[in-house]
Amino acid sequence: MFHCTTGKDRTGWAAASTLLLLGVNTDDMFADYLLTNDQLLPALQPLLDQFRSNGGDPELLMPVVGVQKEYLQGALDEMHKRYQTIDGYFSQGLRLDAATIGKLRAKLTESS
After folding, report:
1. Residues in contact with 19: Cβ distance below 8 Å, sequence separation at least 6, in sequence order
2. How distant is the alpha carbon of residue 41 from its chain centre?
3. pTM of the full predicted structure?
4. Could you tell me the pLDDT band of residue 112, with boundaries at 50, 70 and 90?
5. Mean pLDDT over residues 105-111, rounded?
6. Which residue has the higher pLDDT, 7 or 58?
7. Which of 97, 103, 38, 25 lies closest to 67 in space, CA to CA?
8. What single DSSP character describes residue 61?
9. Least packed by Cβ within 10 Å: which of 1, 8, 50, 60?
10. Are 66 and 36 in contact (CB under 8 A)?
């Protein structure tokens, strides 16, 4: 398990990259990432309401508290530029050996 306060930036990347490593297709990975807007934003509504009541425009906070597909796409583009594949990212970028990557896949997926 991993988590952080809002779970959308570093944690969002950790979740997305792990899903890709496990073979989840890109569309499903993006859909999971974008759930942040459905699940986190309602929890932050009191903060947005207070910001509005103090004269602020809540839309100004959206880049900080919400997510957009483009945010994650930028991270994926950089990962592909540097490491070509998700396996390259885990092996070269994170310096995990093949045995460790295999163990992750085995622990985090169900056998069919």
Report:
1. 28, 29, 32
2. 15
3. 0.84
4. low
5. 90
6. 58
7. 38
8. G
9. 1
10. yes
